[in-house]
Amino acid sequence: xxxxxxxxxxxxxxxxxxxxxxxxxxxxxxxxxxxxxxxxxxxxxxxxxxxxxxxxxxxxxxxxxxxxxxxxxxxxxxxxxxxxxxxxxxxxxxxxxxxxxxxxxxxxxxxxxxxxxxxxxxxxxxxxxxxxxxxxxxxxxxxxxxxxxxxxxxxxxxxxxxxxxxxxxxxxxxxxxxxxxxxxxxxxxxxxxxxxxxxxxxxxxxxxxxxxxxxxxxxxxxxxxxxxxxxxxxxxxxxxxxxxxxxxxxxxxxxxxxxxxxxxxxxxxxxxxxxxxxxxxxxxxxxxxxxxxxxxxxxxxxxxxxxxxxxxxxxxxxxxxxxxxxxxxxxxxxxxxxxxxxxxxxxxxxxxxxxxxxxxxxxxxxxxxxxxxxxxxxxxxxxxxxxxxxxxxxxxxxxxxxxxxxxxxxxxxxxxxxxxxxxxxxxxxxxxxxxxxxxxxxxxxxxxxxxxxxxxxxxxxxxxxxxxxxxxxxxxxxxxxxxxxxxxxxxxxxxxxxxxxxxxxxxxxxxxxxxxxxxxxxxxxxxxxxxxxxxxxxxxxxxxxxxxxxxxxxxxxxxxxxxxxxxxxxxxxxxxxxxxxxxxxxxxxxxxxxxxxxxxxxxxxxxxxxxxxxxxxxxxxxxxxxxxxxxxxxxxxxxxxxxxxxxxxxxxxxxxxxxxxxxxxxxxxxxxxxxxxxxxxxxxxxxxxxxxxxxxxxxxxxxxxxxxxxxxxxxxxxxxxxxxxxxxxxxxxxxxxxxxxxxxxxxxxxxxxxxxxxxxxxxxxxxxxxxxxxxxxxxxxxxxxxxxxxxxxxxxxxxxxxxxxxxxxxxxxxxxxxxxxxxxxxxxxxxxxxxxxxxxxxxxx
Length: 845
Known about the structure:
38% strand
């Protein structure tokens, strides 16, 4: 049984640049690693630079051929990932606006809108660039972004500074699948006041991953991961920083909020995303044009929570991006370290079984637990979607029940319900005033997930029990499953915080004070007075902060801290010379909701404006402070043996691979695969495919001749297929010979098969032959036997070898013979040898 993540090579198209040997070799390498079917490769040609191109070029070279290819090859309904194999430009422009290539293929090119005077045109947030998939926790093929003009694809670029590093990136992603790493993600609160914008979103993501119980994520004060290792992820906001090699484990995601992280092959003066990739990350993100500090344009730390659920890196990143149009995504899109795949197996179907007519086939599946049942099973034939075998929606009249804080309710599933619908309607039931007033808990839906938050500040999470159950109701099968993260709500580890703003220039005698009312009722007031002409608001407020941070009572465990201070006068280049204001945050020194109830009032002379005014609690981030837990909805069966009918008359006779794909029944839809080689036999028609080789390794510089011979003269067409589709066709003849040049298909493993069509429309698919085209010759061991001296060595078919010899090492080697290898083991006998001799063998290509 083959385990795949939420999506697989069956759902992915690799786009290769035929003008780049590196792009071709990398694409072939990835296809082998991810079992990408040969028809899922699109060969494009781009001879320009690898930095930028026009919208017209992007559409002509990639987008339009991709859409045509999917339609022509019958792949439209199964492809929702696209991988761009290096040496394509990463920035697209229409002359005024700039998008990344990955975003333009994800949901179309987006034009900038008007911006305030003095800012670059790219500092806008066009409504059309909104990504409705963001934060949805929905199944991507069924919920693509609403602003996409054509098909939408989870697009990433597989690239790096060189081919070896790009291959290593592919390996990191593939290696990570279902490994459930225990290493930590660091969310870095940096010292860069302008790029540190994401820190306010850290606590929500950390809280959610704590509820998963299988994922380690923590907040820290760092600018870069320099000198660290064994990280599962890193998120920061700094323009430039050093990074050491081998920082990240397979499956890691890492990025920085800065202007030009996506300018991967330009010297922008900032650290580009490739620094993370080359340090071992399996995915990274950066903008390709000045974006301004919009959080919506950068990945939310919720990306790590989505990964913890089992989503792939591509799904996790795109769900974390509200407006990704200027951002480049580089990495291995299918990597899913936390994917939980079901087990599926063929029953009573031997390898190479001969099938005819309409035949019954049997499968058995088992889920890993009740929270991850199998909902759907699809059948793919030779890598193409063929039919849905079963699809188990939530059964009408099933009942899901919730007991919360001592109160119970239930919900009966209606006809035609989806997982999302059941979750949404159950949340409505939990939020009915009569119920939520009793439980003091609110419910929020996110796709198949319900988040429960207590709004009772008098109760800790551990004092609020929660349990769920599922029952048949009046239905004949139980296919609706509600599960919970834990048996009670979890208390927050976030610190209460509130932002404050003070403006205007102080005059002599002006003062600013802070009053803190602790939760025990103790009141502390401290302040500063301006006694010097020319004092700025920046200087005065820093004096106040020094008083606060040296006051022993305020620095006690139940006190406060002042942090994230931004004096606008110190950054006149950003705020202007007439901006006399200060932003800062006040944070409780103890974690949790109760500690955040400390009250703070900033006050002073009438010269100043204070926002907010009056007594305020440090619970601006109240959603991060309230105790919470998660409920998850799923559909399907946990185990089942079943039989379905396959009509082999609807497919060509001959050799095929049947792949049953089982999808677990949450919105993650992790796949389990079971493949079996079979042969269909309904017609008298048959054919054979052969080649002129004596091995399976072929020199890239050579050619291979394939011969197809049918068993009848009544033939309309013979067509040869391999990576990227058809390689040639012959009409109205019972046999055909095709010459395949290694340089056309590139270094890597390639499957070859022929499809023969007779004049009556009958078809036969030959068995598949796989050949590996070899580029640079690897080192090999030379063996010698005598007499006479006979040399043998492992060879690459089609490659030229020079046999060198000498009787005296001091006079050097001369050429004894040159040969072309015709088999996987080459040999040569020295019939003229007399006395001691020395030999070498080298390639000529």
